[in-house]
Amino acid sequence: MPHAIDSTCPKQPVIKALFGGTFDPIHYGHLQPVETLAYQTGLNQVILLPNHVPPHRPQPEATAQQRLEMVQLAVQDSPLFTVDKRELERTIPSYTIDTLESFRQELGNKQPLAFIIGQDALLSLHTWHRWQELLSFCHLLVCARPGYQTQFSTTEMQQWLTKHQIYDPSQLGSKPNGYIYLADTPLLSISATDIRQRHQQGLSCDDLLPLSVQKYIDSQGLYRQ
């Protein structure tokens, strides 16, 4: 969890971060690395964004409402997290750049804003819609992922990373956007696909996701087929 802010110290900049995903279902592989990231970087708030129509992935098994309720249950007792429904309310594919533009309109141009992704997403970032504009709206905070390399396959992308990468996370509060920080987060090899398969096989998932989410999955009869 993030450091408590000491009122006797100089006021620290407020840093908000967005973390999107299908969350079908949300699990500790989502939550624990982000909690560690918040501790490392001084994030004040992480806004979870369940996707409605993921552009690059198969359609979710759970409905949008079920996935929203699972996310809300998972973080209901954590002051770090809030949940935003705007992507679920779209009826068209949900692109990160559109969401960032929407938040920027609300927050203005001075608020430090970050977007959290995994190492795998960073290495495929050049395939994202309008990816070149992302750093015009936010910082990128990258969580390590098990089994993924740390180097881009092209010199051009590696140079782009080098140009924007910072090594001191305290710099994130110094301007609203434009930096990339590669965080040292726990490598948890947990996937929603594995959780769904375990449910189909009648195996326990109690150590993979919050109990409140597990109870909801059972009550809704999710992931049984």
List the helices and strands and how they pair.
Layout lengths: L15 E6 L6 H14 L3 E6 L13 H11 L6 E3 L12 H12 L5 E6 H5 L15 E5 L11 H10 E2 L13 E3 L9 H9 L10 H10 L5
Parallel strand pairs: 1-2, 1-4, 2-3, 4-5, 5-7, 6-7
Helix pairs in contact: 2-7
Provide a compact summary of the structure:
The protein has 7 helices and 7 strands; from the N terminus they run E-H-E-H-E-H-E-H-E-H-E-E-H-H. By secondary structure, the protein is an alpha/beta fold.
End-to-end CA span:
36 Å
Overall residue-averaged pLDDT value = 90
Spatial strand sequence of the major β-sheet: 3-2-1-4-5-7-6
Estimate nothing, just give the exact number of structural domains.
1
DSSP helix fraction: 25-40%
Summed up, the helix count is 7
> How many β-strand stretches?
7
Rg over alpha carbons: 18 Å
Account of the 3D structure:
Its EC number is 2.7.7.18. This is Probable nicotinate-nucleotide adenylyltransferase. InterPro entries: Cyt_trans-like, NadD/NMNAT, Rossmann-like_a/b/a_fold. The chain is an alpha/beta fold and 225 residues long. It has a single domain, classed as HUPs (Rossmann fold). Helices cover 32% and strands 14% of the residues. The chain has seven helices and seven strands, in the order E-H-E-H-E-H-E-H-E-H-E-E-H-H. The chain has helices spanning 28-41, 64-74, 96-107, 119-123, 155-164, 192-200, 211-220; strands at residues 16-21, 45-50, 81-83, 113-118, 139-143, 165-166, 180-182. A seven-stranded parallel β-sheet has the order 3-2-1-4-5-7-6. Strand 2 (45-50), helix 2 (64-74) and strand 3 form a beta-alpha-beta unit. 33% of the residues are buried. Residues 4-10 have low confidence and may be disordered.
